[in-house]
């Protein structure tokens, strides 16, 4: 389904937003004494997520109070619930609702976005109950922008949630073609042995054992201005290759194309907002399945990359960086103003920061600060980690230029990022995002399953980075 707001001309019920106070809830002035007494009798305190339905004289519902907790800035900590109104969308009775007030410190745009995010349902294989509580877009909020943000998020979630039986390299290609058709973008696809002929040897090596041919998807959106290139890892399933994963580690590997899903979702939002008119947006996705067959690449193989660097394969389960390397080398040949890679790349990143806080790597302090501030301000948290130069020697084996899986077990997210950086150098700015792409347990506005990460942080930081 597509996200939507309620028709503002249709009847709607008022929703008062209330914060806790020192001596009780900080009720808005236009709530009467009877309403306040009713709420206090129900134990309503204004804590985040609390709902108090208000009765009309005829026994119907006349509105509701909804607790939004203290101002986040006052606590100095991010709120436990990222989207304050998402829980309201999931718990209020069916019907149309409108915000009757907007307390100081409340971000109405973020609240409305959370309400939209709560509408998401993945119903491709199983019937799901549709949303029943709808929000009238608040005053002074850009409805078009919020619907574009939610549309990009929904696309990323759908792509990740779809199992590989219906989202292999060919189906991921079709998703990219559909996006290109919607926004008059050009798309070219290099597949199978054409990858060797056109010098993408590592994409070919990783994907040649798959049931579907490996391919490189290349989308260019019509526009003029600085070059911005997004590269997303599109490993549609990762068995680990000949270094096969145990069954438990394979359970979520349909999400190993989460980087591709995120760059497609980001491109969807940018195109819907018309931002692609003022930049030259390019999206590159190496789409493969890391499978096992007689022609699978092997531990110990030496691969020669598009850039000419040789790579010793010390673990076939570190395949994402191999396919990204060829795509990054291609992207870097144009010397874009901004080059971004997104990938579900390392377990080390999850160990360091958990599933909810993806690390990113960037050498430019100004760009990194813009990205991190944007993530903080738009409830899309990310955390900077270093391209730590002293670890460069860890990715330099004895018999090749690079090692795709250095031993020792230390700094796995950093060494992977350092590996990718070797395939850039002409781009003015490069940032790499090591995302998880998955919500492991349901939270308001974030159902269990595929998740966008870093998209809004990047989107809202772009104007500052490109100036």
UniProtKB/TrEMBL annotation:
Gene3D superfamilies: Leucine Aminopeptidase, subunit E, domain 1 (3.40.220.10), Zn peptidases (3.40.630.10)
A biological-process GO annotation: proteolysis
Record has Hydrolase as a keyword: yes
Gene Ontology terms, MF aspect: manganese ion binding; metalloaminopeptidase activity
CDD domains: Peptidase_M17
Gene Ontology cellular component list: cytoplasm
Residue span(s) of domain Cytosol aminopeptidase: 315-322
Keywords: Aminopeptidase, Hydrolase, Manganese, Protease
Family, as annotated: Belongs to the peptidase M17 family.
PANTHER family for this protein: LEUCINE AMINOPEPTIDASE-RELATED, PEPTIDASE B
The protein, known as: Leucyl aminopeptidase
Lineage: Bacteria, Pseudomonadati, Pseudomonadota, Alphaproteobacteria, Rhodobacterales
């Amino acid at each position: 389904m597509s996200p939507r707001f309620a028709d503002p001309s249709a009847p709607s019920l008022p929703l008062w937003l209330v914060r806790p106070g020192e001596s009780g809830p900080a009720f808005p002035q236009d709530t009467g004494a009877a309403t306040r007494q009713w709420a206090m009798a129900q134990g309503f305190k204004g804590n985040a997520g609390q709902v108090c339905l208000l009765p009309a004289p005829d026994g119907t519902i006349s509105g509701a109070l909804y607790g939004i907790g203290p101002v986040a800035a006052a606590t100095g900590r991010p709120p436990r619930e990222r989207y304050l109104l998402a829980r309201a969308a999931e718990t209020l009775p069916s019907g149309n609702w409108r915000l009757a007030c907007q307390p100081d410190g409340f971000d109405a745009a973020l609240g409305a976005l959370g309400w939209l995010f709560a509408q998401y349902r993945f119903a491709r294989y199983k019937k799901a109950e549709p949303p029943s509580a709808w929000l009238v877009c608040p005053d002074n909020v850009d409805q078009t922008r919020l619907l574009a943000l939610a549309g990009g998020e929904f696309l990323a979630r759908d792509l990740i949630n779809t199992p590989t039986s219906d989202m292999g390299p060919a189906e991921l290609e079709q998703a990219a073609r559909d996006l290109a058709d919607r926004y008059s973008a050009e798309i070219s696809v290099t597949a199978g042995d054409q990858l060797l002929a056109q010098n993408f040897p590592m994409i070919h090596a990783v994907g040649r054992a798959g049931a579907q041919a490996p391919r490189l998807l290349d989308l260019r959106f019509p526009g003029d201005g600085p070059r911005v290139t997004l590269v997303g890892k599109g490993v549609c399933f990762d068995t680990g290759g000949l270094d096969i994963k145990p069954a438990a580690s394979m359970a979520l590997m349909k999400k190993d194309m989460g980087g591709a899903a995120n760059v497609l979702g980001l491109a969807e939002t940018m195109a819907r907002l018309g931002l692609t008119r003022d930049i030259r947006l390019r999206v590159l996705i190496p789409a493969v399945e890391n499978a096992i067959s007689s022609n699978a690449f092997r531990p110990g193989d030496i691969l020669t990359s598009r850039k000419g660097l040789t790579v010793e394969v010390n673990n076939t389960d570190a395949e994402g960086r191999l396919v990204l390397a060829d795509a990054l080398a291609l992207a870097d040949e144009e010397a874009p103003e901004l080059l971004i890679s997104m990938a579900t790349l390392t377990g080390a990143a999850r160990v360091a920061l958990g599933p909810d806080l993806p690390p990113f790597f960037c050498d430019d302090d100004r760009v990194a600060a813009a990205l991190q501030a944007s993530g903080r301000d738009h409830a899309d948290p990310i955390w900077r980690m270093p391209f730590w130069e002293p670890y460069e020697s860890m990715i330099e084996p004895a018999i090749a230029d690079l090692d795709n899986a250095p031993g020792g077990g230390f700094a796995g997210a950093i060494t992977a990022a350092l590996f990718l950086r070797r395939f850039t150098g002409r781009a003015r700015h490069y940032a790499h995002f090591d995302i998880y792409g998955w919500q492991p347990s349901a939270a308001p506005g974030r159902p269990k399953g595929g998740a966008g990460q870093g998209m809004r942080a990047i989107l809202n930081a772009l104007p500052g980075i490109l100036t």
